């Protein structure tokens, strides 16, 4: 039986052996939601980098760049971290350099994995169906908030665990924790998350519409996948493999 | 308002500023349950050490020693990790050297805190009432399993959060995660935990009676507290302070 595990924070990643695993990187508010939107709206590729400096180098090299720190667009870059910014027609066919507070760091730290894909509520069922076709064990990597576990990423991990639990055994207790959280919150995730620290922080930035959208399941059937350091859409051939 | 936080694993401890905080160390199966039992049954002190080597040095120095690795008594020591072993009359007035897989490491890593106390279901309400009397922020430190979060320690953290939430704000999302887990499991914790990895491991070692006992709330009103590197019972003067 395949195994599933949840890494509650990138700070715990050193405890995982990623070799042979498929990693689903999760940063619901808002990096991996934005990546999903971007691919669905025709962006050709996203280069995830951990630092603002690397992102600035990409800008100097001519890329459109997206940078967020502490919930706000970082100065000097083209796009921030609102999913609606990634629906614009000028981005079609472009490759974007992107750095975010938590999400791109999680990607940088999981390079040993067999494959790295991007998950969000927006492509929830597509991700579950894709994992179903693969023989690999799975690690759901929550980006968290500055090293701490957060509610929204754990919630999404729980939603995936709920869709996959019949096919996978649980490697540790973390999938149980995530699934219990999801079962408690699924009827009204927005209200549930309003008590959480990160969502409070974002509410203060007046991005309630972003949050609502990022919690809406199954808006798209695209999966961003990391290839040679660039996130690109998983092709139809790959998604229908096996 | 005082703040409460939950550290889901000692591997996340470096993210916490422990100065001025009271830390409740949690290793339900079974280190902190054993420590509670020992103090309640007249043990004078417990010296928690991280390694088997340090514990062997204490044995050589004449102490009674307790050592557990991977759920079993380590060879060459006097006592293992069953709470019932700590009820024996020959231990009254003695000081014990103790090392366990996860619990004593958690204590060793939180030395910067203002005060370190030991929590278990066995002294649940007493711990909550004691924290209530203190002005300090609180960190509930789950020992986990080899660096990973585990269900039983998170469950106990959630039980404490449920008792304390009216007086404390949540520092991160981890107290929410813990409380949701507790709310889901509280009606039948043993059945809930039977799905967890650590409890399965322990069931294989035939220690179901230990597990049942460790999940029983409020058997004792003693709190072990760390003083100069030794766990001793909190005195009645301290427990009735303020």
UniProtKB/TrEMBL annotation, chains A, B:
Question: Does this entry carry the keyword Magnesium?
Answer: yes
Catalysed transformations (reactions): (2R)-O-phospho-3-sulfolactate + H2O = (2R)-3-sulfolactate + phosphate
Domain of life (superkingdom): Bacteria
Query: Which cofactors is this protein said to need?
Result: Mg(2+)
Establish whether keyword Hydrolase is in the entry: yes
Which Gene Ontology terms cover its molecular function?
Answer: 2-phosphosulfolactate phosphatase activity; magnesium ion binding; sulfopyruvate decarboxylase activity
Concerning Pfam families, the annotation shows: 2-ph_phosp
Q: What is its EC number?
A: 3.1.3.71
EC main class here is hydrolase
The record, for InterPro entries, names: ComB-like, ComB-like_sf
Keywords from the named record: Hydrolase, Magnesium
> What is stated as this protein's family in its record?
Belongs to the ComB family.
Q: What is this protein called?
A: Probable 2-phosphosulfolactate phosphatase
Origin organism of this chain? Flexibacter flexilis DSM 6793
